[in-house]
Amino acid sequence: MKIKRLIKHLLLPPWLARRTFSPAVMRRIEDAVRQSERLHRGELRVAVEASLDLGPLLRNQSPRARACEVFAQLGVWDTADNSGVLLYINWVDRDIEIVADRGISARVTQAQWEAICRVMEQAFREQRFEAGLLEGIRQITTLLAQHFPATADNPDELGNRPVLL
Known about the structure:
Blueprint: H1 3-11, H2 15-20, H3 23-37, E1 43-49, H4 54-58, H5 63-73, E2 84-90, E3 95-100, H6 102-105, H7 110-125, H8 129-147, E4 163-164
Parallel strand pairs: 1-2, 1-4
Antiparallel strand pairs: 2-3
Helix pairs in contact: 3-8, 7-8
């Protein structure tokens, strides 16, 4: 366990993430997800976690492992076409993870997801958090529309509202 990471997570006031991801920003993200899902059969969820609790920190849980846990907790796997995608942001670690269900993972490579994460991370380094997140959604939408194009019967299986953990 890295002491610096532990201290950062335990001392970050939760309101810092809420200030960046204000209700207005969260509504715009929700609208972007809703618009995205009109173009494909995938289901996109966005989760922003300000910091980890002590337990995961003591276990040295990686952002990737936490993203997989959140994927399961939010039921992103629970879609008819196995086409759920979680866009997870760990605020303190400044880490972005994309976790895709098996239907999508069979068609989109991990390298493609990681490229989207790098674009978002660059925007975050420039303090362009909302723009970076919306660009990530746009790029995910492009991949989902390519591999899971919308059909006449295109149900909205999961909520579109982003989650602030």
